[in-house]
Design brief:
With 425 residues, the chain is an alpha/beta fold. The protein is 48% helix and 8% strand. It is built from 20 helices and 7 strands. A 5-stranded parallel sheet has the order 2-3-4-1-5, sandwiched between helices. Strands 6-7 form a two-stranded parallel ribbon. The longest helix has 19 residues. It is flat and about 95 Å long.
Length: 425
Amino acid sequence: MNNSPLADRIRPKELCDIVGQKHLLTPGKALYNMIENGEIPNLIFYGPSGVGKTTVASIIANKTKRALRKLNGTTASTQDIKDIVAEIDTFTAPNGILLYLDEIQYFNKRQQQSLLEHIENGKITLIASTTENPYFYVYSAILSRSTVFEFKSIDAEDIIPAVKRGFEYLSEENGIEITYEEEAVKKIAYGCGGDVRKALNSVENCYFATPAKDGKKHITLETAEELAQKSSLRYDRDGDEHYDIVSAYQKSMRGSDPDAALHYLARLLEAGDLPSACRRLMVCACEDVGLAYPQIIPIVKAAVDAAMMVGLPEAEIPLADAVILVATSPKSNSANNAIKAAMSDVRKGNIGPIPRQLQNKHFDGEDAEVKGQHYIYPHDYENHWTYQQYLPDKIKNRKYYEFGDNKNEQAYKAYWDRIKGKGND
């Protein structure tokens, strides 16, 4: 009995058999042409797990007749690299070595540098893979000598044929007839989150969990529902996927699209990331709705408090209420722009002494040109306002806040235009 995973046993041998990645692996595309021509530069494959990166590397090794060596950045050492380098120009690697380095982001700078000399002279062709953005995690010298290709998650519809092929392979391998409910196949394909390896793991699990009857196995939807891996398992709170989802979540609310905002909320909650869902929702209410509907801030705060109190799964209800409210509310970033402008001045040192009339009451020194505080109390005047300088002299004419064009802020503007028009300039 073969104990290797099903995904390894039925790994495609030709590009045309690979599931998905049509943007890279169809005739005429750059990567496809490179592989078919056998002229392979150093490559970096960037994308989620289970989408074909290792399979493509294996096909490249076969087509170029190079010795394939595999390392994983989480476990490999500099000595492992030295051992591979020692094979160069030996009978074990007469046509050179193709090094497939999985999870290169876990290699430190020194380890990555140890590869440079050998990938530059062509003795080693490097294919590195990473689930993180290589422009952030891969040493620049390696990056500059490589071509980056992004692999994408695979649509569930494209995974269905792979699931069926998995059952057919198991049937032939074990000499037993396997039938399946179409809904069971769909459950496996849709539940793997675009990861073919997870889908095939579920296929194998379903096979082993189904008893034979009259020399046959029939895979039911019930079995698939029990064993299919959930798409939420692909979620790393420190990885790109996390930041992409929370970014899309807030931008969808800012863009007043409640449907998209709910979709990304659902992805966060399915992953169990309640804190991120709450934090970005609160930020969006303050930053993007703001003064257009200032009452939204305590409303969203109450929804967030309720969500954190009841926890998942019930938390999805108050959060859905608040997300829809934020997405469909009028928008204003006037306060956000104003505080950023004020912070910019402070960070640049544009401050100056606080005007004497605003200081806390204290005695003037002997060198003070004007004695006394001379603070003007606004409530002593009509409409509770009169002119007074509040900013330091250095920036006394600075304007940070501009009224937004929404109903609320325009009402405030009209009020103050009327009141301040009566004041002294």
